[in-house]
Amino acid sequence: MRFQNSVFVDLLKPIDRRAFGQIVARHKGDAYDKSFKSWDHLVVLIAAQLGGETSLRSLEAAFNANSGSHYHLGVRRIARSTLAEANARRPVGVFADLFARLSCELDRRTRRDGAELLRLIDSTPIPLSKFHDFARSNGRIHGMKMHVVYDPGVDRPFCVEVTPANVNDVEIGKKTPIEAGATYVFDKGYYDFKWWRDIHEARALFVTRPKSNTRLADLADREMPQTRGEGYTVLRDCEVELASKGDSKLPMPLRRLHIQRDALKDGKPQLIVVITNDMTRSAVEIAALYKARWAIELLFRWIKQHLNIRKFLGENENAVRLQLIAAMIAFVLLRIAAHRHDIELAHLRFSELAGRFLFERRPIDRLERPPPKYQAARRRISPRQLELAYA
């Protein structure tokens, strides 16, 4: 009989064990625990994400109940006390570096020649309970933030960082490597003239919204051959310059667009003002770029609804960070598997089935099909053999 891997083994195949070992050695990930190694820890946390386990006790029971699958995963049974200690001490860099490597693998599999480089930057709050005494408050939530740089064209989050909730978004944005030729789209939380200038000097573009107190002087109106887009209308496209009397300067050409959305807010049309250093695209294309920023909000919603980042397996900061990075690793592994096996299921349906049949031995591209019925081989009887029959 042909051997069939479990769904979990197939999902973990994109992880190069040798490269992961080098990452562990670089961060000394196994320095504090010789029996429960980084690989065991990674597999257990990914299983918790895909299986929806919300406590150490339930994770221990569910994982150990499938001990027959542990050999091919390269792991062993776990104890929740050991897992709790590893969550508190294992360096976050072990999982963070693995996520970056897997993100590059996803990009290699989904890259399309000639596709524009679009980078959406945003953060999402991670509320924490009062038992997480390390958490900080930013006036709205008590907890942490997860900052993501996302490519909607290939559904690839390629940069993730977790910070306290009171860290300003733009401070993380400044750490983002700028790619020449890319277009960065972000909201008012990344309002910083110096960073905008750095993006421009790196021969990249940005599309954002200015704050209401930003003083911009009109230079000339631009022609708009087309004003109507999908769900919006561009009312005005104007070349502007910064009119501030202080030291703030933006030594680059700028455009300001006034966009009216079709969707009503409080019974009135919503007007959006957008600023960009892109002097080539049409006004409708610029408006479509800012509209595309909604894709990263959908990413955050999907992750929060379908991965386990609402309840945490530890109350210390290190445990929370490890679980958030493990959630993003699980997300990327699901995307790689979908592309590798040409799975046509919706992302939501595929992730649900993968979690349900995680330890079952079945082809990952046939999760939605029932298993074939077992047919026992008929016993061949020699014509020379007497057959017992009842009269």
TrEMBL record:
One of its GO terms (biological process) is DNA transposition. Coiled coil: none annotated. The keyword Cytoplasm does not apply. The keyword DNA-binding applies. Gene3D superfamilies: Transposase Inhibitor Protein From Tn5, Chain A, domain 1 (3.90.350.10). Keywords: DNA recombination, DNA-binding, Transposition. InterPro entries: DUF4372, RNaseH-like_sf, Transpos_IS4, Transposase_11. One of its GO terms (molecular function) is DNA binding. Residues 4-76 form the DUF4372 domain. SUPFAM superfamilies: Ribonuclease H-like. Pfam families: DDE_Tnp_1, DUF4372. Belongs to the transposase 11 family. NCBIfam families: transpos_IS4_1 (NF033592). This is IS4 family transposase.
